[in-house]
Amino acid sequence: MTSRTDQLGFGDLLAEAERQNDCQRQDRETAHLPGTMDEAVPYLHGLIAKHHAAMLAADAATAMALRAEADLLATKLNRFELGILAGPDAPGCRLDRETRASDGTVPLWGQAGCFEICVLDMRVLIELEGLFGICASVCPWPGFAARAIDWNRPFLSETGYRSFLGLSGDLQPNLTPDQFVRNVITAHIVRDLKGKLLPIKPQYRDRHQQTALPPSNAGHCVAEESGGKRDR
After folding, report:
1. Mean pLDDT, residues 200-206
2. 90 Cβ partners below 8 Å, 6+ apart?
3. Global confidence as pTM
4. 146 lies in which domain range?
5. Which of 16, 94, 108, 218 is most buried, most CB within 10 Å of its CB?
6. What phi and psi, each to the nearest 5 degrees, are found at residue 166?
């Protein structure tokens, strides 16, 4: 009995020592990062500016490293626990929200934002993901969602909504976010839709009319509508 108790106590000591070592390692790795949200927001703005420059230079290695640093920043603010994107008050979600571009403005690479483009005479509302996007840690190109604006006209899908995630391919120098989105949608129309847009089905038009935002909020984007909570 005494021997077993001693072993359990020794195991607890080892676990505590390992925990302390992990804490010290985390403190060393994040010593250069802000520890409060007030300090983190301007810091992330700086990361976004560097990330934008890296994307324009087609420097994928630097862009991915900056995304990893953004994740580490959010993890530090979350006390090194999982769940930096677990809900609207999670650090990653707050940072994304506090640094997003104004609605209607084309964002920087790495900045979340909502803006309108026109492709082949079709108006599209774009919701572009930022540094904390679903595939940001594994894909060089950010994901985005495309929503119909003119619901009585043909669109990319019969629902009036189409997401583009997990996009592959090498970065291209001097390509801006709006040019990238336009290129992806054009290629989708030509290759996947054989050049023919689809009429939006009546049930989706009706649903849109029932849930449409008032004119003053028409440009506002709801980023979680297509994704939901994430535990990264």
Report:
1. 92
2. 74, 78, 83, 84
3. 0.83
4. 113-217
5. 108
6. 65, 35
DSSP states along 179-192 = HHHHHHHHHIIIII
Which two tokens mark 176?
């801006």
Number of domains in the chain: 2
pLDDT at 215: 41
The answer to whether the beta carbons of residues 24 and 33 sit under 8 Å apart is no
Residue 231 placed within a domain: no
119 and 72 within one domain = no
Buried b (16+ CB within 10 A) or exposed e, 119-144: beebebbbbbbbbbbbebeebbbbbb
In angstroms, the CA 52 to CA 57 distance is 9
Is residue 166 left, alpha or beta, with left meaning phi > 0 and alpha meaning psi from -120 to 50?
left
Most distant pair of Cα atoms in the chain: their distance: 81
Per the model's pLDDT, the better-predicted residue between 224 and 30 turns out to be 30
Distances (CA, A) of 39 to 23, 44, 100: 21, 9, 16
Helix (H, G, I), strand (E, B) or coil at 119: strand
Strands across the sheet containing 161-164: 113-119, 122-128, 144-148, 161-164
Q: Are 65 and 133 found together in one domain? A: no
Provide the CA 84 distance to its chain's centre, in angstroms: 12
